[in-house]
Amino acid sequence: MNGLKISHLSVKFKKKEVLQDISVTFQPQTIYGLLGRNGIGKTTLLSLIANRIFAQDGEITLDGHSVVDNDLALQRIYVMGERNLYPKNLKLVTILADTAGFYGGLDQAYAERLAQKFGLDLEQKYGQLSTGYRSIFKDIIALTVTADYILLDEPVLGLDANHRDMFYQELIDTYAKKPRTFIMSTHLIEEVANIITHAVILSAGKVILDEEVDEMMTKSYLVTGPEKEVTAYVEGLNVIGKEQLGRMTGYYVYDDLPEMRILPDTVYLEKMPLEKLFIYLTQQTTERKEG
Amino acid sequence: MNGLKISHLSVKFKKKEVLQDISVTFQPQTIYGLLGRNGIGKTTLLSLIANRIFAQDGEITLDGHSVVDNDLALQRIYVMGERNLYPKNLKLVTILADTAGFYGGLDQAYAERLAQKFGLDLEQKYGQLSTGYRSIFKDIIALTVTADYILLDEPVLGLDANHRDMFYQELIDTYAKKPRTFIMSTHLIEEVANIITHAVILSAGKVILDEEVDEMMTKSYLVTGPEKEVTAYVEGLNVIGKEQLGRMTGYYVYDDLPEMRILPDTVYLEKMPLEKLFIYLTQQTTERKEG
Prior knowledge:
Two copies of one chain form a homodimer.
Chain A: E1 4-13, E2 16-26, E3 31-36, H1 42-49, E4 57-62, E5 65-66, H2 71-74, E6 77-80, H3 92-102, H4 108-118, H5 131-144, E7 149-153, H6 161-177, E8 181-185, H7 189-192, E9 198-203, E10 206-212, H8 213-217, E11 220-226, H9 227-233, E12 239-245, E13 248-254, E14 268-271, H10 274-290
Parallel strand pairs in A: 3-8, 3-9, 6-7, 7-8
Antiparallel strand pairs in A: 1-2, 1-4, 4-5, 9-10, 11-13, 11-14, 12-13
Helix pairs in contact in A: 4-5
């Protein structure tokens, strides 16, 4: 019963089905990656959870209770959106105070420390911020607000490399001190591979993968070598991609490797990075849809 | 005389000096990375080149002629901005046609192929696009417009991993067919490390590095091992960062390595990624400024 549970959710905009019968449960105290191609419905899903739009079918529950018109539930879920929802002439300090009022509070001292660290003047108006600093400001709220489920849509959009490092480090630190659920939607998959413990991948309106990252990594391989030997080795396995380098063939495999099969001397096995896995898995479903 | 030359450029906003006496020359037919922290003045520099704002001091010339109020020069320089400069109710096809009119033309067939490839409907209005698709649309113009100097401000902002790969590949292809200068400002440094041939790094209002990427990489090392041995080895070298892992010490070195110095068996040398080099170089100047 515990957790943020999405059941059989479907959404259409005009006649286009954006989400088709999505079911996924976000457990307490876990850091999730919500991954998917541009325009695949990640932002729609976050808006549904935040009650900003409503689904034609299905439901969303928090610890067993529907979130629709449920203020108690909504106070426990904070959604940081990619869109700019704040009035441009509001000062950042005012937005912080308003947010603290609606949710169960906000760690003001920590927010000020973070603002200092990221070089953000909280006396500014929201409309004065660049893309990068808008992300930083929204990240500061997400890291300091009192909520059990915190959804971050593109938290590092426009951030430079140093600021991205700082954000990831703060996320890990605050999670260690007070474990709660973070659901991060991002396009920089390689950078969060060591932070998220669970990945949910959306493609073509469906959940195509919902798994522990550790588990995923033990099944993600690149097998290289001469065509004939490599092809024999991967026979019957779930091959999601193929690349060629001169005479050498590489297969991207997402599967448990067969223990009984002998690896020839000319064939090499290596780990596939999470981003490659994502690229091939989501390409596959897109092609299937079009074909 | 050839090239886009920035000489002793200084800009102040209110009393704050954003760019301080910047000098740098962008050569013909070269792919540049213009790198810097958030808010360091990259966008200001691009706006100056595009004649959208003006400098208090210094000048910008193209092949020896000032770009100020020089329509002939400005037609040869295309600046793709991070800000959204197009009216929201204009159709994408109309924007393409207008751009073709102002510059020396635009490869319409290639633009349509790219739109198809990226899944972008050109009959849409600009205001309907998401952050990612705004970037894609602006990238399509940048790749197809007839100009000798093309400046891209955050070309992959909001793009998913597959789209980023596609964009980099198209950039390399179109450059190979028709070499011209691309100046890319981006925060995803590691991803462009193999694409750019020359890097210009801005920090604290100044150009702190202006060098061929190949040259930079031959001077960028991480030296690891026991503290005593490592410290002895890097003595007198330009150490830009230090990290500790238990008893092991790592120094990030940006320097030519001393040929005469013997590397002890316990000390390891490896290449430093471009992003690490960037992080340490720009941290250093920021700290120097604050100190």
